[in-house]
Design a protein that fits this description.
The protein is an alpha+beta fold. It has one domain. Helix content is 25%, strand content 28%. The protein has 5 helices and 12 strands. Helix 3 packs antiparallel against helix 4.
Length: 197
Amino acid sequence: MKKFNIKKNIELSFHEDDFKRIELIPNKNYFFSKKYLEETVISNDKLDNEHGFSSIKVLDDQPIALIDEKILVSEVEEVLDKITSKRTDNIKKGYSNSYTKVKKTKAWGLEYMAVLVETKEKYTESIWLLEIGGSLIIEDSRGQKLLQLLLKLGNNFNLILIDWRKEILIDISDQEQTENYLVEELGYNLDKIVIVK
């Protein structure tokens, strides 16, 4: 197996509003999340007006947190390291001119998307996606590596994806659903077939 070093000189900064906007959560939350999206989340176009957003929605916690699944960080890292070697733990979150270091988190770069893994001791506390630019981006593979990664995470750890921005839930163990999400919602151009076993 290849050995990867964390590149501390690569910095990933993001606005705090982008924190966990696209999350990977346990599949056991599927029906709760589906109902929550249908009943609770109000579309952004209903919240804003000519002066900006008129209200916000604080998201409820999922009934089963990812940390409850006791997924070892080493197992998640192994999946990620096989797909991309661009990785950093130099991550900052904030707004305007105020950014602070994000602790116990690593990021792996893909084509215009980073996968962030937050840890608690030896277990995975959260996995989420962040749209990015800059030095963490790998070569353009037209979304194939992101597709492969999502399918692997979905199948290996029984995870689903919830995109709070677009208010949709995706079974990332299902190749067709995942491909449709990447193409229709994120704008990737998948021109090759990826089959994950």
